[in-house]
């Protein structure tokens, strides 16, 4: 029920900064790693300001992802279930905050098809994810923003690798591979004490927070879906100018019914298998299945897209 939208309004666009500051101090992480408060504030200010005013991929989206992730870590029981330590907790919060930093508003496919500067720079591989990571870690080379200044070499490398792995995992191109690994690991009886296993679980939770708006209460989901639709159509318009046609679900002339069909497909083939897997690891999160079902039903009731509806959610 946390209202990210209202927080963004009353904080004058600083919701990401405020929430991250509060969560870090609530969890004692700045004290744990001896992070200077002035440097931390500088870092959060520049990251918050470095998100572009895109309809969807903006600092408000990052705030929503951050809140979702912290809820899963704490109330959802992930910290206890996989044995997260302070490095893990800091890493997943940082990954949430920076995962779309400096996102230009058009997706990887557009950049690759147009051979943009970023696509060439990152050799067409996880273009936007690599861009966000490189920009953030470059910031941290400056003393003004270096929140890692007091870290041991081991702690810094541990947090850095975890942040990189999690942000790269948000690239949907790798979704099925990551989900298949996670599902296979769930079938093993061993405790989640290995760092690779812990990172895999954290990757999947960040992926759900990033792509799982449909697991939120309907009022919130409609807000995010509307913003996503606006950004889709903006890219579709740009694609038409360059290529003559738009990517699937990005043609504004096809309108809301076509967008709804895309949402239902995404829920069925991407979100439902992922949330079902996460709920096997974290049973406390099963309550979000009701929101997923309600949001599927909403689109079906409005547009009658029964052929693309939903996937059966466990429970």
Automatic annotation (TrEMBL):
Zn(2+) 1 binds at residues 61, 99-100, 210. Zn(2+) 2 binds at residue 100. Residues 1-306 form the PDEase domain. GO terms for biological process: signal transduction. Coiled coil: none annotated. Gene3D superfamilies: 3'5'-cyclic nucleotide phosphodiesterase, catalytic domain. This is PDEase domain-containing protein. It comes from Eutreptiella gymnastica.
């Amino acid at each position: 029920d946390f209202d990210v939208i209202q927080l963004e309004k009353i904080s004058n666009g600083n919701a990401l900064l405020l929430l991250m500051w509060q969560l870090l101090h609530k969890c004692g992480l700045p004290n744990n790693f001896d992070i200077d408060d002035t440097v931390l504030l500088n870092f959060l200010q520049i990251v918050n300001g470095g998100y572009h005013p895109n309809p969807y991929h903006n600092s408000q989206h990052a705030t929503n992802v951050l809140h979702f992730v912290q809820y899963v870590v704490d109330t959802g029981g992930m910290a206890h279930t996989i044995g997260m330590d302070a490095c893990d907790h800091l890493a997943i919060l940082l990954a949430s905050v920076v995962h779309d930093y400096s996102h230009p508003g058009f997706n990887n496919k557009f950049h690759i098809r147009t051979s943009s500067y970023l696509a060439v720079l990152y050799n067409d591989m996880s273009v936007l994810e690599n861009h966000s990571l490189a920009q953030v870690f470059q910031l941290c080379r400056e003393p003004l923003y270096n929140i890692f200044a007091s870290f041991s070499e081991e702690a810094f490398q541990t947090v850095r690798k975890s942040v990189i792995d999690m942000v790269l995992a948000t690239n949907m191109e790798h979704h099925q591979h990551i989900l298949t690994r996670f599902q296979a690991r769930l079938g093993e009886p061993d405790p989640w004490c290995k760092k690779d296993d812990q990172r895999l679980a954290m990757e999947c939770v960040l992926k759900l927070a990033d792509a799982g708006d449909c697991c939120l209460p309907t009022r919130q989901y409609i807000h995010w879906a509307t913003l996503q639709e606006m950004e889709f159509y903006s890219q579709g318009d740009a694609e038409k100018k360059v290529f003559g046609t738009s990517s699937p679900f990005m043609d504004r002339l096809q309108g809301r019914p076509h967008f709804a069909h895309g949402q239902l497909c995404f829920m069925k083939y991407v979100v439902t298998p992922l949330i079902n897997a996460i709920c096997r690891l974290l049973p406390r999160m099963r309550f979000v299945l009701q929101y997923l079902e309600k949001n599927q039903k909403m689109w079906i009731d409005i547009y009658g897209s029964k052929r693309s509806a939903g996937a059966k959610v466990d429970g």
